[in-house]
Amino acid sequence: MQWYELGPFTVFDVETTGMSPVNCRIVELAAARIDTDGHITRFQSLIHPGCKIPIEVQLIHHITDAMVINAPKFSAVAYDFLDLAKGSTLVAHNARFDLAFLQESLARTGLPLWKGKTMDSLKLVRQVFKGLPSYSLQNLRRTFQLKDTMDNQQAHRAMADVEWTVQLLEIIFSELLRRS
Q: Could you give all domains of the chain from N- to C-terminal order, each with its CATH number?
């Protein structure tokens, strides 16, 4: 059995204007849906947050006000994201953060909340690979030698984090299948 046959999964990540889902906004949303036949469909969009991106946050994800000035608002991309994820399990690394922003953004725009299954790759990797010094995505990237699958991949950009989380999910589920 291949790991993706346990799916379908939609791995997603958001970049934001800050840490509070209530007071801050999403500036980038990316996802990769892995179907049970292994086919991957990707989705990525910068999002106009309707507010300025604090400079200290720009220094983390390198998304500037100029980059999002002509980007669509969340409501314009939410339907595409929800269509992609429909019928799958949503997966994020530290899912509480990403899911809180997703749900708050959906509620704020009057769209239906995500009611499907969710999974946290952070919790999974802690259970399967106990005792690692750090479970941050960047540390796991080094520990498991996760590949850069796109040109100019940069940590703390949504699609790069999605691609590394997909690889991490493969490692986790492949290990679980090996053990069973």
A: 3-179 (3.30.420.10)
